[in-house]
Write a structure and sequence with these properties.
Layout lengths: L1 E5 L3 H12 L3 E5 L3 H8 L10 H10 L3 E4 L11 E4 L15 H13 L4 E5 L7 H12 L5 E5 L9 H6 L4 E4 L3 H10 L1 H5 L4 E4 L1 H32 L3 H9 L20 H14 L5 H24 L8 E5 L15 H10 L3 E5 L4 H5 L6 E2 L3 H5 L4 E4 L11 H7 L4 E4 L6 H7 L2 E3 L6
Parallel strand pairs: 1-2, 1-4, 2-3, 4-5, 5-6, 7-8, 9-10, 9-12, 10-11, 12-13, 13-14
The chain binds uridine-5'-diphosphate-glucuronic acid.
Enzyme class: oxidoreductase
GO biological process, one term: polysaccharide biosynthetic process
Pfam family, one: UDPG_MGDP_dh
């Protein structure tokens, strides 16, 4: 199959490289000249484990290439994917669809012969119909189908998620489009991955409902963690105890500082707005959005409390800045709320993140960025674990204690056990567990 992928952001680049690896001929298109030039030189603009090698391999095999011009590959393509950004619109939280609309216009200009136009970007219900109308208006005689095929990959595990997904969702109502989609996902089909064919609106909603459900699960366990702290219970054991019930499941029950990233905050908000517009408000998701925003803001108070109620003149060592490990993505990261709040309380903040520091520098000011966890801790009054990078999981606790001015640790990801910290003589605070 021949594929054009419009947009070389996270989803576009990973999907393009994986489709090429499935054996298809893929051209990834982007307007950003510097991005395309970099990709042509084998440089990957995002941090994603395994992506650089996958791109290099498929470029070498002649299955993957990059272009500034959608006209170069679209006329011959069997499927053209729209994988452009859908950020929150400033002010009202709706998904901003201007890039999607623009892509539809561009595709309409150059498509030739039967083409399946696929929205892979996360788009509100009804967007497929809008894309269809835009193309139909520009090219009344064109032969095409518009399909919804949302992506469920996680940053940091994107390739694995694409190649071994729990399911593939395809919103395609006509036989011809279904056939092409089945062919594109052929290797997964052979692996017996469920490929769910449904109508377009259902497929579009499945994406938002999935993300909102996962965000709700996290928010639920975070609230349970708060309650655990009040009643002397242990949230990790609560999560295990409920997760063993097959109807609940063990995943996404890890309590922490609140979810962040480029998807959950944006998608929950967009779902809230869509539901309001259709006079069918989703009160649960509205509450989730509100609780999570408040939670991220409240995290710094834990640090202040751990330091005896005052941070003035103290040094806080922050380990991890990105919204989760294995990514350089800082979008809606809890650190963006925590660090300024520590500074506002009078702390000097010293921070380290294994790959996110360059991104962080532009967003978090007056922070002393240092190289490595032990340099961060040196002379600090408190250490705060904000992101659970693997390299923070096995710190030499004797060294930690000897380097710090006061051995106080606030672990917002529960990567240590309270008993090992007590034994090491570190004053340890975590989430939802007895001290
Ligand atoms: C999320 C979904 O997991 C993907 O399925 C989806 O495709 C993607 O959004 C998207 O819509 O593009 P991602 O944002 O990369 O993926 O990250 P997650 O691993 O889901 O984590 C999101 C946030 O939830 C992080 O801040 C993480 O720390 C937090 N989280 C996750 C918890 O606090 N507890 C958990 O148990 C799990």
């Amino acid at each position: 199959m021949r594929v054009t992928m419009i947009g070389t952001g996270y989803v576009g680049l990973v999907s393009g490289a994986c489709f090429a690896d499935f054996g298809h001929e893929v051209v990834c298109v982007d307007k950003d000249r510097s991005k395309i030039e970099k990709l042509e030189k084998g440089e990957i603009p995002i941090y994603e484990p395994g992506l650089e090698a996958l791109v290099a391999e498929n470029v070498k095999a002649g299955r993957l290439s990059f272009s500034l011009d959608p006209a170069a590959s679209t006329p011959k393509a069997d499927a053209v994917f729209i994988a452009v950004g859908t950020p929150s619109r400033r002010g009202d939280g709706f998904a901003d669809l201007s890039y999607v609309h623009k892509a539809a216009e561009e595709i309409a200009e150059v498509m030739d012969g039967y083409t399946v136009v696929v929205t892979k970007s996360t788009v509100p219900v009804g967007t497929g119909t809008e894309v269809e109308e835009i193309i139909r208006r520009a090219r009344p005689d064109a032969d095409f189908s518009v399909v919804s095929n949302p992506e469920f990959l996680r940053e940091g595990a994107a390739i694995e998620d694409f190649k071994r997904p729990d399911r593939v969702i395809v919103g395609a109502e006509d036989e011809r489009a279904q056939k092409i989609m089945r062919e594109l996902y052929r290797p997964l089909y052979l692996n017996e991955t469920p490929i769910v064919f449904t109508n377009r609106a259902t497929s579009e909603l499945i994406k938002y409902a999935s993300n909102a459900f996962l965000a709700t699960k996290i928010t639920f366990i975070n609230e349970m963690a708060d309650l655990c702290e009040k009643v002397g219970a242990n949230v990790q054991e609560v999560a295990r105890g409920i997760g063993l019930d097959g109807r609940i499941g063990p995943k996404f029950l890890h309590a922490g500082p609140g979810y962040g990233g480029s998807c959950f905050p944006k998608d929950t908000l967009a779902l809230v707005r869509t539901a309001q517009v259709h006079h069918s408000p989703t009160k649960i998701v509205e509450a989730v959005v509100e609780i999570n925003d408040a939670r991220k803001k409240k995290m710094a108070a834990r640090v202040i409390e751990a330091c005896g109620g005052a941070l003035e003149g103290k040094t806080a060592a922050v380990l991890g800045l990105t919204f989760k490990p294995n990514t350089d993505d800082m979008r809606d990261a809890p650190s963006l709320d925590i660090v300024p709040a520590l500074q506002a309380a009078g702390a000097h903040v010293r921070a380290f993140d294994p790959v996110g520091m360059r991104e962080a520098e532009g967003l978090l000011k007056d922070v002393e960025y240092v190289d490595g966890p032990y340099k961060t801790l040196d002379g600090a009054d408190v250490v705060v674990i904000v992101t659970e990078w693997d390299e923070f999981r096995a710190l030499d606790l004797e060294r930690v204690k000897s380097l710090m001015k006061a051995p106080v640790m606030v672990d917002l990801r529960n990567i240590y056990r309270p008993d090992e910290m007590a034994e090491a003589g570190i004053d340890y605070y975590s989430i939802g567990r007895p001290r």
